Amino acid sequence: MPSLKELRNRIASVKATQKITKAMQMVAAAKLRRAQTAAEAARPFAERMNQVLGNLAGGITPGPQAPRLLGGTGAESTHLLVVCTAERGLCGAFNSSIARLARDHAVRLMNEGRTVKILCVGKKGYDLLRRQFGAQIIEVIDFRSVRTLAFENGEEVGRKVLGLFEAGEFDVATLFYARFKSVIAQIPTAQQIIPAVIEAAPEGGGIGDAVYEYEPGEEEILGELLPRNVVVQIFRALLENAASEQGARMSAMDNATRNAGDMIKKQTLTYNRTRQAMITKELIEIISGAEAL
Questions:
Q1: For strand 78-84 and strand 115-121, is the pairing parallel, antiparallel, or unpaired?
Q2: 203-232 pLDDT, tens per residue?
Q3: Which of 53, 91, 120, 256 is catalytic?
Q4: Residue 91 catalytic?
Q5: Three-state secondary structure call for residue 74
């Protein structure tokens, strides 16, 4: 049985940890509000970009003349997985859930005989994947020095992905991130960004039946919009990840604070029982000694 001093030290240590987790929870809650606002503001723009591309792609005849970012290379032998995770831990299963989704996707592709390359955006994704896929990881992009995500950060990743595609390093690129739903729900998501997956425009209803004439032509407009769309989707994923990370950290630190409180109660009860037992033992020894005299 531990001594009273050891129990007091344990209680003091858990109380100090509880203060830290409570402070981290409050900081995450403050950051979450800004991150959630930024993520929600980026969604309409990204969705509208897809609609515009869908309208433009509807006038393109599939074939060699179609933009490569839209039609692809004609092969699916090499896949690039862009895995976006956090730079720091202490956020529950946020990082591991994204890494697990990417790991399952990579294993399935490798079992089919495909070549897999991984671009890690965030240190934690690299830490989780390097043991199993160390040979497949081609680069790690680190945003630890970035305090607030900006569009330039999405452009940095987008330029890297587009450069690899133009160099013929891969045929298909898939983006992995966590879509923010609520503080307790972050949904791991896999989104193909190259070649672009364009949803068909809805038939009928309002201006959807109108016939558009483009100047310049659809191919030239798509040549400008498709690279921009890759950057927009990556930036949106980074914003969704930032909000999901803070929500997951807030939830994890709240649970840690509650667990610390339960542990303090148990340790305090053990301390009081041990102290009472020692007092009782001393009284019995004193009484026994007095009777012996």
A1: parallel
A2: 544 445 555 666 666 677 777 888 898 999
A3: 91
A4: yes
A5: coil
